[in-house]
Amino acid sequence: AQIRYSIPEELTRGAFVGNIAKDLGTDVAKLAAANLQVLSDSDSQYFSVNVNTGVIMVSERIDRERLCGQNPRCFLHLKLAIENPVEFYRIEVEILDINDNPPEFPSEEVSLRIYELASLGARFPIQPAQDPDVGTNTLQTYHLSANDNFNLNVKARTDGGKFPELVLEKALDRELRAFHHLVLTAEDGGSPPKSSKIRITIQVLDANDNHPVFDKPSYGARLVENSPLGTLVVKLNATDVDEGPNGDIRYSLSSHNSAALCQIFAIDEQTGEIRVQGNLDYEEATVYEIEVEAKDMGSPTMEEHCSVVVEITDVNDNAPEVILTSFSSSLSEDAPPGTVVAVIHVRDRDSGEQGKVQCHVSPDLPFQLRKDYEHQYSLLTSTHLDRERVAYYNVTISAWDLGSPPLSRHTILPITLTDVNDNAPQFEQASYEVLVAENNPVGSVLVTVSAADPDSEQNSRLSYSILRAGGTDPGLDPTRYLSIHPTSGQVSAKLPFDYEQTTYLQFHVEVSDGGSPALRNRTLVHVFIVDQNDNAPRVHFPRAGEDSATQFRISPSTVPPALITKVVAIDADSGRNAWLSYHLVEATDPGLFSVALRSGEIRITRVLQDTDASAHELLVVVRDAGEPPLSTAVTLVVLVEEKGPEALQGSEARTTDGGGLPTITLYLIVSLVLISTVSLVGLAVLGVRCL
Predict the structure, then answer these.
(1) Which domains does the chain have, with CATH numbers?
(2) Which of UniProt's keywords are assigned here (predicted)?
């Protein structure tokens, strides 16, 4: 079963809601015996049941606005449970609204700002009041205090909300009344009705109906060019009789000014001061006319214009300019004096005496300036030039004006002299002397001749060649033995030299440059061949075959120091390489014979004994003094016989040539004299050349 009750909100605790025993038609005692229980659907227990009487009572304060908000109907649900038998009863309690809340505005006061030129019928919404009650207890109407300019209009929405609006019925005049104070009252429909009020303050805003006015229609100023940045030009002054933003003035340069002018001048928007922010150049502009506008901050803004005329005074701030009308950076070194090198135009952007220019070139240079006519000069050569002495000139053209103080400018003209072939090559030495060891390897570099040519490029490219020297042996062609590298000057051997055939060679080396026509020069080269120990000693006496020995016979009665024989040898080399020494290397009886170190004489050193052998074999080595030394060996056999000669006789000697020894000795002496003479002459010539 379901039972419904209706009670107003905000009842006190213990207030009667209903009698459940009566409404169910049940005895109260039966409900108590049936263990009656009350169950609520909400977290709070707003109701309780007296089991002895069956009465439902309020146990907590009930606020319908908190429970159900703006919902027009609000219900609380209970369940009653009894036992024996088990039965459930659903109870629905409707909470009725009472007028316990007045309408409330969000704030106690609101301010509006309305322009005095607002059109009639303009609407100005006011934040609505809020009333949490429902039905007739909620907000029903608004009331506006009496005034001359505004009426109240209330807009109703489909959800029942009501929004107040102020409607302008009469034009505002700030000059008559700047502020309006109104009271808006919100009222609900309760009995008695409840209400609340909000104070409305309306500020009438001034309309921008006056434009700024300058104290002068135009301004004038005078500045020198190159005035420093920040220099004050003029201070403008404009006034506006309006108030607030309508009378607040901002200054600016008009859009009619060029972009270049706006980069030179700047204006302070607050004070109206015009200052220099760029470079003032008399040569670019002598007068500047600046358009300035003054605007108020009204809406819409109003503005006024004026002009500022700035005259610029010239100062000597421009150095002369040197302009090359014609210029050749290269000049032949054989150019005659008076040759035009450059044509120069000079100018100065200043005016009057400050714009007159004079030019000058250093007198230390082989150049001079000639004034052709006003503002034009020619640069000429003043003397003969020599590239080998000075190959490059930096000619400084100095130009200065007649200002006070004068300004100057220096222009450097780089001039390079081009070469002509006016210098012959020169060798580093007038002659060269070379010592070359014989048996030199083919291709070895004997000497490097070097020449220099002060000319440049092709005129200084040198080529070397070998020529036969005058007065030399026609059979000694130097090109047969030697070759020369055409560019490096290295002289190399084509064949190995043999001192025994050629001891001295001379030739000319010619060098020519690459000019047209080519210039030439020569140097003399002396080549001295140095002997090497390349020949072993050769035995002339005694003569013997490769595998045979020469026999000599002596008497047993030969007494020391009898000469047995003499070994004669010669060496084709010269100097120390031909100095020979004789050595007895092997002997049957080493103590019986001796060999003289330099002469090669073999002598008996003691008396022969009966116990001595009848034949003695001697091995004699002939060695030269070269490095390393070369040697030749000869074998002699000495026979001891009764009938033999005592000295210098042997079977080979008698049978071949009895008078051979004196002839060989003569040949040896002559050879030694010739070799010594040639050596001395060569050393003398070498010494003279060195000196």
Answers:
(1) 3-96 (2.60.40.60), 109-205 (2.60.40.60), 213-313 (2.60.40.60), 321-418 (2.60.40.60), 426-530 (2.60.40.60), 538-640 (2.60.40.60)
(2) Calcium, Cell adhesion, Cell membrane, Glycoprotein, Membrane, Repeat, Signal, Transmembrane, Transmembrane helix
